[in-house]
Amino acid sequence: MKKSVMVLILMVSMGMLFAAGDKETKKLELSVSTGGMSATSPAGQGMAQFAQKVEEYSKGTMSVKVFYDTTLGSPSSMVSGMQQGTVDFGVCGDAYYSSLTPEIQVFELPYMFDSIEEARAAVAGPAGKAIGDKLEKKGIHALTFWEIGFRQLTNSKRPVSSPADLKGLKLRTLPATFQVKAWESAGAIPVPMDISELYSSLQQGVVDGQENPLSEIYNQRFHEVQKYLSMTSHVYTPMLFSAGGTTWNKLTEEQKEIITRAAKEAQAIVYSVNDRENINYLQKIKDAGVQVIENPDKQAFKSLMSGSKALYTSQYGDEMLVLLNK
Question: What is the pTM of this model?
Fold first, then answer.
């Protein structure tokens, strides 16, 4: 009888040990969306790096499944999903966060930055931190800013060298108040829509043109349905890589450190790919038969679009602009 009891106790103890071991070694599986970006885009390559580094730094206790293109829905639905806890992590153009923190649109006011170095320093500085603090209160934990880059203009109707050439053009813009205002002021007819609808809208003539960085123009194949590209460099678009607040609050401090480190290292990949590939993207677009206007009248665009800054400050004050100048 005593022997049977001892065997039973030993079996129970071993079962508890294995159960505990399973719990300790169970991999934490996380989902991350590229917010409509393809696997070959700079953001897509950065996200692959992020997933790899999380697995490496956590010694296999954490894994990240990356969803490219619009597999998890549009960028707008991705941001909502992070808020609601159905998407763990995501990255997309900062305009898609504007419904939660409209002040974020300061980065995308027309002709705010004269160089890529100036733009990257700005989002990494006090203004970027202030935006992160505001989003934290809305259930989104900002990790780091990546980028889509400087935006260029394409259309299917005619070469655009100056604002006068925009008259009557239906132009898809970001769903952001100040983007719409800027293009209205320049003479276009703005049509806000998600990027998930854009290719078919261009193909079917719902809109005549759009504006995006070269990486997106090429990787989203917009050059297939557009005849003209104008190198306006009118707006710099950061991408904000974030965690849903529910997910973030469940992580241990060590896990948070791993995520933050991996996100920052992936940022370097995104920047490097953008720097390297923009020349290649432009050549590929030219090779596809698109006519490129390399030196449009940027000063004319800047003058007409300047009213966006006054509209911004009238609604949100000058706090963010002051921070950008620090």
Answer: 0.80
